[in-house]
Amino acid sequence: PCSWVVVFVLRAVAVARWEDVLDHGSIKGFPSYGEANKLLESWLHRYPGYLERRSVGLSFENRTMHAYVLGSRSVRHSRGSVPQVLLTSLMHAREPASLTVVLYYLGHSLALLTRGDPQTLYLVETREVWLVPFVNPDGYVANEGLGKKLVRKNLRPTCLDQASSGVDLNRNFAFHWKKNTLPCNEEFQGARPFSEPETQAIKRLCEENHFRAAMNFHSFGGMLTHPFNWAEHPLLPTDDQRVYDEFAAVFGWQRFGPAKLTVGYTTTGESDDWMYGVHNIISMSPEVGPESGDFWPPPHEIKGISQRNFGRILYVVQKSGLELNISWAQSMLQKEPPALPPMEGGLPKAVLELTLRNSGLTASAGESLSIAVSGATAVSRRAVNESRLGAAQARVLADGKLLAAKVAAANSSMPGALTFQAPPLSRRSSSRFQLLLGRSWEPTGTRELRVCMVEVTLAVSATPVCHCSSGLTELPVPPDAHKTELQRSVFVRASPRSSNRTLGLVAHDDAALCALAIASAGHQQAISSQTVEQLVLPSSGSGEVVPPLLDRTASASPKVTIAASLAFMVIGLTLAGCLVRQLLPGLRPWVTASMHRQVEGQLLLVEASTSDSEAFVHKELRWP
Q1: Deepest of 6, 62, 71, 604, by most Cβ within 10 A of its Cβ?
Q2: Is 124 within 8 Å of 253 (Cβ atoms)?
Q3: Nearest 5°: phi and psi at 445?
């Protein structure tokens, strides 16, 4: 209906308006405390299914400190069963770019949800992001009424000079805290660790949750600092240092590391050190904004700072959970593996080696993994049905242990597939599987391999997510090693339909294999045909999965004045079109047919039966 188009255009105007709040605010272009809270309030009313507000404490002047929780209802009610990430800003009140970066991440994520963006849908169903925009609300409000706006600390009176009073909240955490500055110093650490209500609120928040990663935003300088900031020569466990190096490589800043390496001096009682040292949170402090800038950069720079850091936050949120890499290798079988049962047609000529690597900060969910591989075998549906009972078609070995495996039927969209169950992937670990096909099931030419993996959980309300390799991996004969370094995550939401069928919408190249993996997992939930999305994460040359390009949001919405003009023009044209359509009924069939030609055949309905682990393309979907 025409009204839908009008609503869509008005929503586009609303998007432009919220972006304007961030760089056309009343405080040197930045939003005031009231403007920012009004914006947050509007998001709460508009997105109740994805956003929730929780009180975490009171400031020194008794302002309520809020955390905003981004995630689906099922995720927010799961009590920390999914990876959690903490984002904070304005620990130092004179650093407003930290606030707009956090607000932009939240606002743009919510806008992407309304557009059905697959990566954002995937993350809100598998992650929980906590955002505390105002760690130091009193100091920020105080800056609003000042000319130079350089209040850094909270407003506790600590010396006679009111402008120099206060406690530096980022020196008040109980990890290598030292009483080494005077009360009027801008880095005064407070009378004791956690003496301030603001740091006590962050302390409780970390104790009551299980954050995998934290980003405590500051400005300015374009650098990344991480623990241990108190040490002259900090040493971290090897893998933790590798995690920070991976973040630094993606963030693209030349300066990164502990305070001694980035700013030239050590800092004690710091938030990142406490979060990492006490709670094992991979915590960091991005200093946003250019080194040549200032605490209050000009308004025309605000949007760019926010957009450039959106991708950085996105990568941290992604990495807080499972971050999957898939690689393949093939080699000639040199000798028979010990204790291997007989195989149909005898031993194969070659052994396939599949490696799954989790470079994320959380283990895979559930009790096991259900893995489906297409292209490993050269079979037909008839061959599977007529196979001799008791003869092994395929064997899968993991660390010398034999895993249950099964060859599934083939069809026109999916070559013969091999399915097997495997133990879950631990945090920052890899698993290697050797796939052996009986000689009569082994392809004679080039293998074109594709793999999908499902995290298997026994929870009735769990959302199955299928991770698939990004296209085919070709392994020619003679055997040679090849790798594929991308992943797709096909998000599948359960719905109360039939109890023994699995339905979903995915891109057709992975449809049958993904449905087979879900069905092979014995998932007894039906899958809504309207809520399956696909996610593609690009890869770096080093083989590590990296997030979408950091300038992903470069095509941001126009200013509200331009957007409003365009909106009224489109609405006028839409209403005129509605009038014409009412006067000329014969026009609609032509328009509908034209739309059919543009969109038909783009999606496939996939159906799988959990009783026989058989997946097939059901029908093409078309819509006007």
Answers
A1: 71
A2: no
A3: -115, -145
Bridge pairing between strands 473-475 and 282-288: unpaired
User: What is the C-alpha separation between 614 and 381, in angstroms, rounded?
Assistant: 10
Using CA of residue 189, residue 195, residue 197, residue 202, what is the dihedral sign? positive
For residue 48, give the DSSP letter: T
Residue-wise pLDDT tens digits, 461-511: 456 678 887 666 777 655 555 544 444 554 443 333 322 222 233 334 566
pLDDT at res. 363: 93
- C-alpha distances (whole Å) from 500 to each of 45, 492, 608 are 37, 16, 9
Measured CA to CA, the distance from residue 402 to residue 196 in angstroms comes to 57
Residue pair 535/118 in contact (Cβ under 8 Å)? The answer is: yes
At 109-166, the pLDDT tens digits run 999 999 988 889 889 988 999 999 999 999 999 999 998 999 999 999 999 998 899 9
DSSP letters spanning 365-396: SSSEEEEEEESS----HHHHHHPPTT-BSEEE
The conformational region for residue 345 under phi > 0 = left, psi -120 to 50 = alpha, else beta, is left
Q: How far apart (Å, rounded) are the C-alpha atoms in residues 39 and 18?
A: 7
Please provide the average confidence, as pLDDT, over all residues in the chain.
77
- By the 8 A CB rule, do 518 and 491 touch? no
Radius of gyration of the chain (CA): 28
Query: What is the identity of the amino acid at 365?
Result: A
pLDDT > 70? residue 579? no
H-type helices in 191-258, by residue range? 197-208, 238-251
Measured in degrees and rounded to the nearest 5, phi and psi for residue 36 equal -65, -40
Q: Label the pairing between strands 84-88 and 401-403.
A: unpaired
Per DSSP, what are the bridge partners of residue 545? 539
CB 70 within 8 A of CB 313: no
543 contacts: CB under 8 Å, gap ≥ 6: 325, 327, 483, 485
Count CB atoms within 10 A of the CB of residue 284.
Answer: 25
Residue type, 464: P
Q: What is the pTM of this model?
A: 0.79
Cβ-contact 247, 224 below 8 angstroms: yes
Q: Is 304 helix (H, G, I), strand (E, B) or coil?
A: helix
Question: Which of helix, strand or coil describes residue 447?
Answer: strand
Distance in angstroms (rounded) separating the CA atoms of residues 165 and 153 = 8
CA distance 93 to 88: 12
Quote the CA–CA distance of 208 and 217 in Å, as a whole number. 21
Residues 6+ apart with CB under 8 A from 485: 325, 326, 327, 539, 540, 543, 544, 545
* Digit-coded pLDDT (tens) for 589-601: 333 332 222 222 2
Structure tokens at 396: 């899968």
pLDDT in tens, 375-407: 877 664 445 555 543 446 788 989 888 888 888
